[in-house]
# Entry
Amino acid sequence: MMDSNVRPASMERITTKELADAFIAEQVKEIRAQVGDKKVLLALSGGVDSSVVAALLIKAIGKQLVCVHVNHGLLRKGEPEQVVKVFRDEMDANLIYVDAVDRFLDKLAGIADPETKRKIIGKEFIEVFNDEACKLEGIDFLAQGTIYPDILESDGVKAHHNVGGLPEGMKFELVEPVKLLYKDEVRVVGEALGLPHGMVYRQPFPGPGLGVRCLGEITRDRLEALREADAILREEFDKNGLAGKVWQYFIAVPDMKSVGVKDDKRYEGWPAIIRAVNTTDAMTATIEEIPYALLHHITDRITHEVDGINRVLLDLTPKPIGTIEWE
Ligand code: XMP
# Structure
């Protein structure tokens, strides 16, 4: 029998709208044949893969798809709003929005160790998703944004791991319509499905989100300062033509304060650290040379517009020796 997790050698690389449309038409047929009149559940993070899977399933089965978007409080500025706008308002999807911000931030309070933070975020995510899944009735399928590199790199572990996180007795059959596609193909398909360019071509964002950039113990005020500073950096990269050119760029805010002066008064604040790197596979990375005039402008905006930030620093460390993320 043919292994459905192996990409056939004859499968053409999807590089054009025409090829994407053909793939979409074929998948719509296959999804309908697999699912029939049953319901499908999907954890929709707003990332490229889950968004494309959502759009494909909405096209194929409409309201038989139930999307759950968990806002864990560690998303970038505007992201939860964009998920609601695109999927509920524009695509008329069946979307459950879960505000789990307090639940996550309460669990993370007082925890400074990076690995413990990651574990808490991962575990809590599965619990929140399970809580929502348990409230629903008549779900037979679970959709996942597994892509081909996930299968190649982990031998399908991502898929099984996710299913393994669901409660006993909840047995779902998987729907994984993009599992044979590479990332660039998923993006072409996403655009053909009408998803916004910014959603389809967004830079990689770690699962634990801003949680690994709000260094050490996460506090609500410092997390908010990080989110605002990051939004300014992204806006300026967009405006100045760097967004499409630089592979990954973000702000990290350490858990330390320094002395400053504002309006003739002493002003203690956190530093915002800019990291902007280029890479092909994230195993090694080089530093993007941001023009000095732009760095001055970004520094000016962040220190004036963001409460609690009184310095802006630039991380010039390539990988190795620094990892891309700080934690
Ligand atoms: P590092 O920091 O190891 O990061 O150089 C390499 C790439 O992986 C991303 N990253 C993650 N992605 N979950 C993810 O989905 C994670 O826990 C995670 N940690 C790091 C990082 O943003 C970079 O693109």
Notes: Residues 42 and 166 are 13 Å apart (CA to CA).
